[in-house]
Write a structure and sequence with these properties.
By secondary structure, the protein is an alpha/beta fold. It is built from 18 helices and 9 strands. The chain is about 55% helix and about 10% strand.
Length: about 400
C-alpha cells in the first residue's frame, strides 16, 4: 500500500504514478483517471486500473531496495529512507536557499523541505533557523554562503532596503552567487527597485525573478500563496516546480520586465486597501443610521460577488462608457451628493465619497456627463495628463 505513511510518505503515490506516466508504461488518461479516483473520489488505490502496473513497479524497486540495503528489504524505516533519497535525487536537481525566516519566509522554507528539496537557510537572527535545521536544512551565517551552495535563492524580506542589504556587499549573495543561478524575490518592493536589482544581477551573469506573493502567514504555511512573476519566461519555466511548492494558489506570469510583477502586487494591495477603507466607512455610516452590522455584511456578500462588478472592470479596461438605458454620470453625481448628506446627518465623514465626487465633477467638466456613470474612472487619466479616449 503505497499510500500508507508507515511504509512510504503520502506523496510517494504521486511519484510512482508520475514515473509510470513519464516512462510511457501507462497512458496519461489512465493516470488522470486514477488520480481522480484516489484523491477526489476517495477510492482505494488497490481498486484503480493502475494497480497491476504499480505492483510490477513495486517488484522492481523492491529488488533495488534489497540490493541497496544488502539486507532485509522489509525494514520499513530503511526502505522509506532509501526511497525518499532515490526519488528526491532524481526529481529535485536543485539546492534551494531561503533568505529571511519571518512569518512568511518560514512557511516557504517548510514547504521546500516537505517537497524534498535540499535546503539552505539564512536569517539575520540566527535562532530562527533552529526549527528548520532540526527538520533537515543547513543554516549559514551570510547570504553569500547561501549563494555559494545553491542554484535557486528565494528571498523573503521586508522592504527595498532589506533586499539590497542581502544582495550587495562583501557578504551579500551576489558576492558568492554561482553563474546562471536564480534569485527569486518574494518581497513586496517598488518597481524601481526591481529594475535596479535586475541590472545588478545581470552584471554578475545571474538571473533575477520578481515573484512577490499574496497571502497571509497561514496561507504560506499551507503552501497556497499566489504570486505574480516577471523576468525571463524560460528561467521561470525551469523552476516552476520550486515556486509551486509554496504558491499552490496560483502563478500569474506578467512579462519579461521585472518591474511588472511589483506593479501587479502593489495594485492588488491597493485593491485590498481600498476595500478595507470602504468597509470601515460603510459600517460606520450604517451604524450611525442604526442599521445592523449583520445586514450590512449581507450587502457586502451580495455586491462583491455580483457579476456586475466585473462588468464595470471590463468597461474601465476597454474605456467604453456607452450608456444604453443605464445611469448617466450626472445621475451618479446626484447619488453621491445624497451619500454625503446621509453622512453629515449622523456625523460620519466619508472621505472616499468626497474623492469620487471630485472625480465625477472632473469627468463631467470634460464632456462625459451623459456617459455611463462609471466614466468617472477616466478622471485618473485626466488628472495625470494622459490622453482621453474620444
Amino acid at each position: 500500500d503505497y499510500s500508507d505513511d508507515e511504509i512510504f510518505p503520502s506523496y510517494t503515490v504521486n511519484l510512482i504514478i508520475n514515473d509510470l506516466s513519464e516512462s510511457g508504461t501507462v497512458s496519461t488518461n489512465l493516470v488522470d483517471a486514477a488520480m481522480t479516483d484516489i484523491y477526489a473520489n476517495s477510492i482505494p488505490l488497490s481498486t484503480t486500473p493502475l494497480i497491476t502496473s504499480i505492483n510490477d513497479y513495486s517488484t522492481t524497486i523492491t529488488q533495488e531496495i534489497y540490493q541497496q540495503l544488502k539486507g532485509d528489504a522489509s525494514d520499513i524505516a530503511a526502505r522509506k529512507r532509501w526511497w525518499v533519497e532515490k526519488e528526491m535525487a532524481s526529481k529535485h536537481n536543485f539546492t534551494v536557499a531561503v533568505l529571511g525566516l519571518g512569518a512568511m519566509g518560514s512557511g516557504i522554507a517548510e514547504n521546500m523541505l516537505k517537497n524534498g528539496y535540499k535546503l539552505v537557510v539564512w536569517n539575520r537572527t540566527q535562532s530562527k533557523t533552529k526549527a528548520l535545521v532540526d527538520a533537515g536544512s543547513i543554516s549559514v551565517a551570510t547570504p553569500r554562503e547561501a549563494a555559494q551552495q545553491c542554484d535557486v535563492i528565494i528571498s523573503c524580506l521586508f522592504d527595498d532596503k532589506s533586499v539590497f542589504d542581502i544582495v550587495q556587499g562583501e557578504n551579500g549573495l551576489l558576492a558568492g552567487i554561482r553563474k546562471d543561478s536564480v534569485h527569486i524575490s518574494t518581497t513586496t518592493i517598488s518597481p524601481m527597485a526591481a529594475t535596479q536589482l535586475t541590472n545588478l544581477h545581470q552584471e554578475k551573469g545571474v538571473h533575477y525573478i520578481s515573484g512577490p506573493v499574496l497571502g497571509r502567514p497561514d496561507v504560506a504555511a499551507a503552501g497556497k500563496l499566489r504570486t505574480f512573476l516577471s523576468g525571463s519566461q524560460t528561467i521561470i519555466d525551469s523552476i516552476t516546480t520550486i515556486i509551486e511548492c509554496y504558491c499552490g494558489g496560483g502563478l500569474i506570469y506578467v512579462g519579461e520586465d521585472s518591474a511588472h510583477a511589483c506593479v501587479m502586487k502593489l495594485s492588488a494591495n491597493l485593491c485590498v486597501a481600498s476595500i478595507i477603507d470602504m468597509y470601515g466607512q460603510i459600517y460606520a455610516l450604517n451604524e450611525g443610521w442604526k442599521v445592523s452590522t449583520d445586514i450590512t455584511k449581507q450587502l457586502f456578500s451580495m455586491l462583491l460577488t455580483h457579476p456586475g462588478i466585473l462588468a464595470y472592470s471590463e468597461k474601465v479596461r476597454n474605456r467604453e462608457y456607452t450608456n444604453p438605458g443605464g445611469v448617466a454620470l450626472r445621475g451618479g453625481l446626484k447619488d453621491i451628493n445624497l451619500m454625503l448628506q446621509m453622512g453629515e446627518e449622523v456625523g460620519v465623514p466619508l472621505p472616499f465619497v468626497n474623492v469620487i465626487h471630485d472625480h465625477i465633477v472632473t469627468a463631467i467638466g470634460n464632456g462625459l456627463g451623459e456617459k455611463d456613470w462609471s466614466a468617472f474612472a477616466e478622471s485618473a487619466r485626466l488628472n495625470s495628463g494622459m490622453q482621453q479616449k474620444e
